[in-house]
Amino acid sequence: xxxxxxxxxxxxxxxxxxxxxxxxxxxxxxxxxxxxxxxxxxxxxxxxxxxxxxxxxxxxxxxxxxxxxxxxxxxxxxxxxxxxxxxxxxxxxxxxxxxxxxxxxxxxxxxxxxxxxxxxxxxxxxxxxxxxxxxxxxxxxxxxxxxxxxxxxxxxxxxxxxxxxxxxxxxxxxxxxxxxxxxxxxxxxxxxxxxxxxxxxxxxxxxxxxxxxxxxxxxxxxxxxxxxxxxxxxxxxxxxxxxxxxxxxxxxxxxxxxxxxxxxxxxxxxxxxxxxxxxxxxxxxxxxxxxxxxxxxxxxxxxxxxxxxxxxxxxxxxxxxxxxxxxxxxxxxxxxxxxxxxxxxxxxxxxxxxxxxxxxxxxxxxxxxxxxxxxxxxxxxxxxxxxxxxxxxxxxxxxxxxxxxxxxxxxxxxxxxxxx
Length: 420
Prior knowledge:
Blueprint: E1 7-12, H1 18-30, E2 34-39, H2 49-56, H3 78-84, E3 88-94, H4 96-103, H5 110-116, E4 122-126, H6 130-134, H7 136-147, E5 151-152, E6 156-159, E7 165-169, H8 173-184, H9 188-195, E8 207-212, E9 217-220, E10 223-225, H10 232-243, E11 247-252, E12 264-267, H11 271-285, E13 289-292, E14 299-301, E15 321-323, H12 327-332, E16 339-346, H13 350-364, E17 368-373, H14 374-377, E18 382-383, E19 385-389, E20 392-395, E21 399-400, H15 401-417
Parallel strand pairs: 1-2, 1-3, 3-4, 4-5, 8-11, 8-13, 11-12, 13-16, 16-17
Antiparallel strand pairs: 6-7, 9-10, 14-15, 17-19, 18-21, 19-20
């Protein structure tokens, strides 16, 4: 039991994702934790308090004025007493409205008041329509909460209850459980130390721009050219860079991955959009480090057809291709240039990769080039990478991508400390 003797407050606000929270409450107890559920009035519109009472074995609080029968705190102050008994608070789902309340210190419900009066960690799992999540007001509120020390878990991307597709889905119960284990598990610190190099603070306050995922180059409204990159390596590096103390901007192609905690994410589709976003971010953030992990399409159609190209027309044979901008080379040419780290995916053997990397690094004019066998690594959680710099080539053993990201950032920090 990974959460034995831990006690959590689970806050439920208005959203259809509240049904997932039922499973989370059960899983937390399977891990040895106890759970106190607190609901807003809107949350009770989706799942009843009686359901959560049956799952948690505890009466559910819904407002500051009416304590569940026989469970009221001695001094009549549930917004104080309930949080003092807990190790942490998780709001799941966290609606756009409740996020706005938290960001502005409002106390319109027992749950909001309790969050304001807490002395324990607060984690929130946003859940809302994609346009609500992308709205500038919501993003400002999220940035405020992050700066206040609130952990933002997700959201993920995919099908939504409204029928649309995009960011805004609440993380699945298993993912939320793992976050709580990582935050509160009895061996969380020892586990991280055993798996990963200690990178805390090695890039403190450095501005880092990272690209991840594929690009998609449209041919017509229904067709396009892309590649198999999942984005997992780039997202792992972004997560590790934030852990290392950096201010991270992640520019992502079309992927369905949850945004790592504590970073700024910009979504793009095409190579040209990624190029523009990178150059803007390098300038705006005065980036010290650029890590180009994205598998950017080398070519794009010269023109995108306004309508679907009919199979009978044979027009696909007539597509004229033009070369996409070399983002890594463009950043490396800047004066002054940030520390540039590139990725090279090859389909051959490790020996082939070892032979190719030095010349490619010289051609790109970057201090560090990372090689991986792309056909085997795309979409997987593990990988094997090769580091090529002025001192030669270092082959890292196969490992989880997050572990490799920690080793890579340790190497980058060493480059950063060298005279340039």
